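User: Show me a protein chain along with its predicted structure.
Assistant: Here is one chain, sequence first, then structure tokens.
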Amino acid sequence: MPINTIPTNIIFGFLGAGKTTAILDLLSRKPDGERWAVLVNEFGEIGIDGKIISQAGADGDIAVKEIPGGCLCCVAGVPFQVGLTELVRSARPDRLIIEPTGLGHPKEIINTLQNKTNQKFIALQQIITLVDPRKLHDERYLNHEHFMGQIDVADVLLANKADVCSQENIDIFWQFAGVYAKTKSHIGVTQQGRVELEWLDKNSIVDRHELNSNSHGADHHHSHSEDPNTQSWTFPFSEVLTMMRL
């Protein structure tokens, strides 16, 4: 890790996987004397997760920055870079945690963090992906590009919500995760979003240089649908739309 770079972790997971719960739990166990920063991306106009995390940092040793609207890879140009730079400069954190919405393309986010500009101050550490084992029987998830992409890039793969899952759900997770055994630094089952602090700084097994050749670039096109039962679209309009006209 270059001198003066900030250890940075990404926490991936589809809607309901427990990302915010995991971050709040990590913040509650933050080492004394350390200042952490959290960069949150929200899909929609109201950043609920960001507000919740901001409340956790009310004592001043946790800084939170929101990038609202769209998936993080779609705003990973100027808005993302400006937000990231402002957060780092103002907070000067000892650790940075990034919570992208589950809609963000994992490889694009990683490549952005590893560009020449960001490598000067970002040291990307373990990438953590939380999954809800109850979704693993659903082919709509297993065939979803971003769902599988989050699993592919993970260093730590965790089945969350074990306390509300059946044994069959857990067994399905272990069967599913078995094929990733050689490409993850840790695979496990957890509940209430519990992520151990020592997992954050393990050496990555994932070859992130390979991601560059697979990146879909700034002019990419992909479905902005996290929940297989819901969809959202972004359209370029030159005039303001009102609710009546919609």
